[in-house]
Amino acid sequence: MKHNIILTKTGKSAKGTIQLTGSKSECNRALILEALGGGKVKVENISDAADAVLLAGILRKSEDESLKSKVESPQVVVGDDEVHEVEVIEDKLPASDSELPTQGLKTVDIGPAGTAMRFLTAYYAIGDQEVVLTGSERMKQRPIGLLVDALRALGAEIDYEEQEGYPPIKLKGSFEQRTRKISIKGNISSQYITALLLIAVKLPFGLELHIEGELTSRPYVEMTLAMLKEANILHTWEGNVISIPNQAFATTSLHIEPDWSAASYWYSIAALSDEAELFLPGLRSYSLQGDSVITEIMANFGITSQFKDGGVYLTKEVKPIGRKVFDMKECPDLAQTVVVVCAALGHEASFTGLETLKIKETDRILALQTELAKIGVKLIEDNEVYTLDCSQKQLPQRMFISTYHDHRMAMAFAPLAILIPELEVEDADVVEKSYPAFWTDLAKVGFNSSPLTP
Ligand SMILES: O=C(O)C1=C[C@@H](OP(=O)(O)O)[C@@H](O)[C@H](O)C1
Ligand SMILES: C=C(OP(=O)(O)O)C(=O)O
């Protein structure tokens, strides 16, 4: 059932301390490494993001007490209308200390979790059990063909259950490595590349991965290699070739940093407020997450980020907005945040690097265009450059935001409640995918969200 809320905000200042949950991206990688690590890799500060909790439930022992409250339920609601079930044979989940998946799952429903879908595809491809991997209706429209082709070239047997190139897929559990050298296009999703890099160390002959053409979302590949390095897995990256030999994991604890993509909504709140004094504990200036670039982007909107006391302080100074062009290729998950802030402030900026947005939780370009039209703002494409036209901008007294099963649509538009007296947000639970505490955190700085009774 979808729950809409009415969001209002008292005053135009935002002051408070917000403890963000762990990074979904870091956590998903850490969980795969934990599962492959033969008991050597531990994960600290697991994220509350529903996508990560779901992945943990699939990969970890069900008797793991520390996770029990989060993973025990056989059904996980993950931000859309569907309830995704993790189906288990023999009532047993694969043990975290198993080196490769050897028993257990028959059908795994990963819901809307794209990163987890891609990582599990590689993980099960080299295992020895037959697994059907499926997901939400949207997941069945998100391409996986390039990753499947790469895994098949390595020696995996994978079939499509419905549409060629898309989930659901059947992984046969009969891997025999044919080659160590494969190539993959880099401009569709970096998640395919990360998926291959995560399993590389388990390939008997290792991996030599050639990235063809442009690499999108590059910081996510760097995050993967940095986390592998924390587990003592070494690599070389020369030109467009990344090589990882077969190696053993060292005993490691991977500590998950707070989520910088989630932090971006606090920057947006600060940017739309007259006054802001926010503290986000745990965030450091050096981060594995490329989305920490939000500090630089938001400096253009008068937001100062000061790193001290083990976190970041945000303050706001009203000043003219400097930058006109924003390239989002390395930080696609920030695109909605920055586009909405510019639109709300009537700043006619241009955006590049938005190509991958069409294949995420929804077609984010179309979703942005549709919702921004409600405040009279256009997002116009010309040769892959998207420019805001704010000439007809008009903020209404009440606005309804459609969220399209996309957590980032809800979170990017929510700060508009600072400027619009009543904001109705569709399907508020959609935020659970990456930031379940979003609405309760907003309440700490004067937002009020009340459920809309049908
Ligand atoms: O590897 C990751 O953790 C992610 C990579 C990015 O995807 P693409 O590489 O498909 O752009 C990003 O949008 C996603 O939210 C998380
Ligand atoms: C694109 C995203 O996630 P995923 O691809 O993991 O579904 C996201 O969190 O914005």
TrEMBL record:
SUPFAM superfamilies: EPT/RTPC-like
EC primary class: transferase
Binding site for phosphoenolpyruvate: 24, 114, 142, 191, 364, 408, 433
GO CC annotations on file: cytoplasm
Gene Ontology biological process terms, A to Z: amino acid biosynthetic process; aromatic amino acid family biosynthetic process; chorismate biosynthetic process
Catalytic activity: 3-phosphoshikimate + phosphoenolpyruvate = 5-O-(1-carboxyvinyl)-3-phosphoshikimate + phosphate
Active site as annotated: 333 (proton acceptor)
Enolpyruvate transferase domain boundaries: 10-442
Domain of life, source organism: Bacteria
NCBIfam families: aroA
Name of protein: 3-phosphoshikimate 1-carboxyvinyltransferase
Protein species of origin: Mucilaginibacter pedocola
Encoding gene, per UniProt annotation: aroA
